[in-house]
Amino acid sequence: MMTFQRPARSKTAGGDAPALGDTLTVDGVSVRLGGREVLHDVRFAIKPGEFVGLIGSNGAGKTTLLRVILGLLPPSAGKVRVSAAGIGYVPQKIQLDPDMPLRARDLVGLGLDGQRFGIPLPSRARRKRVDEMLRAVGAEHIGSARVGNLSGGEQQRILIAHALISRPGLLLLDEPLANLDIASEQEVVALLGRIAKEQQIAVLISAHEMNPLLPFMDRVVYLAAGRAASGPADEVVRSEVLSELYGRHVDVIHVHGRVLVVAGRGDGLEIPLEHTGAHADGA
Ligand SMILES: Nc1ncnc2c1ncn2[C@@H]1O[C@H](COP(=O)(O)OP(=O)(O)O)[C@@H](O)[C@H]1O
Ligand SMILES: [Mg+2]
What we know:
Helix 2 runs parallel beside helix 4 (152-164). The model is unreliable at 7-16 and 276-283 (pLDDT under 50). It is globular, with a radius of gyration of 19 Å. With 283 residues, it is an alpha/beta fold. It has one domain: P-loop containing nucleotide triphosphate hydrolases (Rossmann fold), CATH 3.40.50. The protein has helices at 62-69, 104-110, 123-136, 152-164, 182-199, 233-236, 239-246; strands at residues 3-4, 24-33, 36-46, 51-55, 77-82, 87-90, 170-174, 202-207, 219-224, 227-231, 251-255, 258-264, 270-272. A seven-stranded mixed beta sheet has the order 1-6-7-8-4-9-10, with helices on both faces. The longest helix has 18 residues, at 182-199. Residues 62-63, 92, 174 line the site of magnesium ion (MG).
């Protein structure tokens, strides 16, 4: 299932309360996997309606952090607080078999199941909700198509509708732009930015490339070397901040409206850190 209900947390008094109005608070989260600290003291918060990019190269810990937020992986230190009732989740790399006899609207409707035990929506109300969601993601014309026959961008829209139909207050997407062409990439990002604002949902989207997100992203959480820097992109994506994070000198280069983060080697050969999947520790 792609919609998660975190276990209800007991109310705690005093200093443990989340900051007023935050949908998600990640508070000093560290994670150890295979004897290695993959994330160290990660902290940030997201409010309703905010569209936040979780940026980092391959292996930076994006999926790990999303799994901690979903309650699937216990942190070794720190806490996650989610004030929303449900979390919508679009996992990384879903393969939809072209032969699977499942229509787009059936997949969207599945997002209503598996969470409200006992009282299923009557079929007419259910159909109406599915139609609403298909419209919300601009996919009303492909509702009856087999999911496996849809393009990558169309499949992402359907998966987003699936994750949103239960009306979660927090939406997590793990690299939804991977394998999309540039036009679909821009459409999906614009769609998510609009949904965040219109439905006042907190949206956290992971990506190894930040440029497609820049026009819509309210803030960035930049992961490198197991640590995170968060804030508005123009404050975080700067040579001083990222060099400190990576633990070595990196340059931030603005070229043709794009931002490139590169590790200068001093010999004229520069390595783009986001595209190669180069590990932040320089290994
Ligand atoms: N179950 C695991 N056991 C040990 N190491 C893991 C496990 N899962 C992920 N890792 C390691 O944690 C790091 C972060 O992985 P991941 O969160 O998948 O990164 P990303 O999603 O940013 O590509 C990687 O170095 C990966 O090899
Ligand atoms: Mg990942």
